[in-house]
Specification:
The structure is a single chain. The protein has 220 residues and is an alpha/beta fold. 52% of the residues lie in helices and 12% in strands. It contains ten helices and five strands. It starts with a strand and ends with a helix.
Length: 220
């Protein structure tokens, strides 16, 4: 027997699905829930006695916790469960999110009885159940070129001037502003202005952080 759990906030949908599934001798509806929260509580109780269902038919839109979040939490706790999303909408974004969290596909609620039964078997066999449009959208997402790897920053990339590079080298060597002024023949105020500019470009506020950042840049 294949045990099934139905999750939907509409009693009429639950009743309709039970009527369809009861016509197939290998299916038994062992649990129902009217919300994502109730579904999680029911599964937790059944897990405690090692009696989880094989398949969860999950409504995507419900008050409180919807089907997407419920699917995420169910698959996180019970990855062996097969979750099929039920919807009255061809709602791409919700469906793709649910697939991302481990749903085995989705079915429209007006699906015929024979197709519903076939779909449950397909999902249990590991097949992903999609309509053409959602499949095409997933394919487009997959075909997106990967983002170019981020290049580490450089002194040139941070727009350091030649003088700022010189002063940065002295900072890394541990020279203070007065010693740098003597080496460069610049006034103390000018050195401090250059130092302030260097800190700003590095995004730091003190000398120790500047030294760490500059060592990475100079070593690179």
């Amino acid at each position: 027997m294949i045990s099934i759990m139905l999750v939907d906030d509409q009693a009429s949908i639950i009743a309709g699905l039970k009527a369809i599934l009861s016509t197939h001798e290998e299916f038994v509806v062992e649990a129902t829930a009217g919300s994502g929260e109730e579904a999680l509580a029911t599964l937790a109780a059944r897990a405690a006695v090692q009696h989880l269902p094989d398949v969860v038919l999950m409504d995507i839109r419900m008050p409180g916790m919807g089907g997407v979040l419920a699917t995420q939490r169910i698959k996180a706790s019970y990855p062996q469960l097969t979750v099929l999303i039920l919807t009255t909408f061809d709602d791409d974004e919700y469906i793709i999110d649910a697939l991302h969290y481990g749903a085995s596909g989705y079915l429209l609620k007006d699906i015929g009885g024979r197709r519903l039964i076939e779909s449950i078997y397909e999902a249990l066999s590991g097949n992903l159940l999609l309509t053409g449009r959602v499949a095409a959208k997933l394919a487009r997402n997959i075909r997106q070129p990967p983002a170019s790897p981020a290049h580490p920053p450089t002194l040139a990339g941070l727009a350091f001037s030649a003088r700022e590079v010189e002063i940065a080298c002295y900072i890394v060597q541990g020279l203070n502003a007065r010693e740098i002024a003597e080496r460069t023949m610049l006034s103390l105020g000018t050195v401090k202005n250059y130092t302030s500019s260097i800190y700003t470009k590095l995004g730091v506020s003190d000398r120790s952080k500047a030294i760490v950042a500059l060592r990475e840049l100079l070593d690179g």
